[in-house]
Amino acid sequence: MPPRPVRIALPLLATAACVSAAAAGEIRGRLWASREAARLAAREPAALAATGGRAARATHDRRLVRAQRPVAEAVVYIVEIPDKVERRLASRGRRGRSRPPMPVMVQVREAFSPRVVVVPAGDSVGFLNRDRIWHNAFSVSAARRFDTGKLPPGAGDTVTFQRPGLVTVHCDVHPEETGYVLVVPNRAWTRPDSLGEFRLPKLPAGRYQLRAWHPHLGELRRTADVPKRGHGAIELAF
């Protein structure tokens, strides 16, 4: 079943109105791929050891890792941040710090890899054919319609994404190929690790609208707070 379209709506009221720029902290959290995964993690190690020892704990850990596999394709982001913070995040390539390279979605073994790419609005994605056969990349999504045309082996193209939203990418040579470019509204975004833990960039104290998205599990919408001191914490489950 194809994922439902994601509409990223920017609020009319500026987030900066409820944000104090006096302090900065991170939003840290954990994203569970399912409620089952959250329940598995809630089981105390001591209780597992008492009921089944090391074997029970090992079985539990394997089940948890398996339940959390989908979070590898999840994205966590903030809907709106102050302009000053966005400028700071955008200038990370200055002052001697290296700027992240342009993401590239490669077509290899008749599949898009990685299947999910994330870029802030205004940035570009490269599309590269590393197969020994011809490919194509196109989208008819409302956030960005494009068509690279036929790409021979070794050829590529670059597409810029100006509007936030979900862009589903296809290949007209191989209809089974599907990829996703999630265009987020700013640079306050992150990907969870293999166990679902995540950490967003530092933000001024205040309340923010947080989204967690997955190509098949859908979208979660929550409010997250950054305190005047320390960091904010949040836990989410698809």
UniProtKB/TrEMBL annotation:
The keyword Cell cycle does not apply. It comes from the Bacteria. Keywords: Signal. Residues 1-23 form the signal peptide. One of its GO terms (molecular function) is carbohydrate binding. InterPro entries: Carb-bd-like_fold, Cupredoxin. PROSITE patterns: PROKAR_LIPOPROTEIN. This is Blue (type 1) copper domain-containing protein.
